[in-house]
Task: structure prediction
Amino acid sequence: MGQVEVHALRGVSFQVQRGEMLAIMGPSGSGKSTLMNIIGCLDRPTSGSYRLEGMEISALNDNRLAEIRSRKIGFVFQIFNLLSRTSAVANVELPLLYSGAPHRRKRALEMLERVGLSARAHHHPSELSGGEQQRVAIARALANNPSIILADEPTGNLDSRAGQEVMALFDQLNRDEGITLVIVTHERDIARHCQRSVQLRDGRIVGDESSPQGGTASGPQGMPE
Result:
């Protein structure tokens, strides 16, 4: 910020286990977004180490980071980021197109069926409810079979019922398929769905707690993401 150096994160150290569902919480300015950007290979830390499935990420160039984002990370945002003039199935196809995957339409339709939207595949976003649009975004995040899904305030633009439906879908994906999920949220009701909650304040971790109410992932444990 001009001549002022701001440390968005300082001394942060933790692991996400394969198959875990983790919440990252904290007030505005606590470093949540910076941490999410580093985990998602959108930013590089100025020092320290970040490993994804045993691969050192922090020193990779932009092209390699883009490749890892495309193949290993699925993103779900508060604002759904769907192309408005494109059908649901075409939106889900986008990451498959970028990665050069074969049989893109078949895979995209399978992903929409996975989130319960196969009947809405050819509808445009304006013809879908907010909850349905977020489920399309989740299908898109799943398209390349990523190692980890990062969700940034995924229920922030939804009413309470649609938000609960989205969280029930996340619960199912984690519990039944062992998908690793990291969810940034300020809502404790959302964090309660997770097995673990990491709290940030002023760029530092001030809490790291297991939740007795969180679901139990079925994926193999002990492998840090």
